[in-house]
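Bumping my old thread because nobody answered last time. Still need a sequence for this structure:
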């Protein structure tokens, strides 16, 4: 199935624009899970079980798994196996390198682990993204405008009388506009409004709500299309740090995910 069809289907079937970010840190998970053979795998599986009816997909921040080497990749496999087939998966890997190196990344994340999509650094140009873009039924989320304070170092520099992020978007869409979406930090509401007005068919992945000072209401109000997902992580996956049982954990985390989904949908309804 082409990613765009799966993406739209996930939004529709789940009635949700929420992507749960699995930035899973063993120091922050409940104590009862730390005795498991693979604590992060066990934690993630409970999060997925608790949130799958409220989310349209999951984003795994790969750095949290790479640091644990073999056990981390085992956790990735276990997590992906637990995610329902109709929901989207995102490898938040932010890869970008020369083409023969990127080909190996594409083999790892798409061919071996079978993620639906991946985040990519576009700075090295078209050939660095080509191995991801040529994979059938896969998708690339290019970093365009991020929420970290260092974003101003480069992303707003003027190139051809345009901010660099705009040049990145225009050039990247020329590489393959059917397999490319963009990452926009939630704090950049003016730019999100401009992007979604100029490119109404291009999906956005929007992180940065809460912890990075993004306002959910302002972000939703800035959107000019509905092909977007909002990533939320800490407020959901760490909602039950003192839970003592799996059932208690799933109840609290599920309620947090439901609240996030309903808040997004509520602000969307208010726009109509």
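Sorry it took so long. Here it is:
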């Amino acid at each position: 199935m082409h990613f765009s069809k799966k993406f739209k289907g996930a939004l529709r079937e789940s009635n949700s624009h929420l992507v749960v970010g699995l930035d899973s840190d063993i120091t922050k998970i409940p104590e009862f899970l730390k005795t498991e053979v693979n604590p992060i795998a066990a934690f993630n599986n409970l999060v997925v079980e608790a949130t799958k009816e409220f989310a349209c997909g999951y984003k795994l921040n790969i750095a949290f798994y790479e640091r644990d080497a073999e056990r981390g990749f085992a956790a990735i496999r276990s997590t992906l196996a637990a995610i329902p087939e109709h929901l989207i998966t995102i490898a938040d890997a932010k890869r970008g390198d020369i083409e023969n190196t990127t080909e190996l990344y594409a083999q790892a994340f798409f061919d071996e682990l079978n993620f639906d999509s991946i985040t990519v650094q576009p700075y090295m140009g078209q050939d660095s993204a080509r191995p991801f873009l040529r994979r059938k039924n896969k998708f690339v989320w290019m970093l365009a405008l991020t929420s970290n304070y260092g974003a101003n170092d480069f992303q707003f520099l003027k190139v051809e009388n345009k901010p660099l992020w705009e040049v990145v978007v225009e050039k990247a869409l020329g590489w393959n506009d059917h397999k490319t979406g963009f990452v926009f930090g939630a704090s950049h509401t003016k730019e999100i409004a401009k992007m979604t007005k100029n490119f109404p068919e291009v999906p956005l992945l929007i992180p940065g709500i809460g912890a990075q000072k993004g306002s959910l209401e302002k972000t939703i109000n800035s959107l000019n299309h509905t092909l977007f997902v909002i990533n939320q992580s800490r407020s959901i996956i760490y909602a039950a740090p003192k839970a003592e049982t799996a059932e208690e954990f799933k109840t609290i985390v599920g309620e947090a995910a439901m609240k996030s989904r309903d808040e997004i949908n509520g602000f969307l309804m208010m726009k109509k």
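The chain has one domain: 3-271. Let me know if any region looks off to you.
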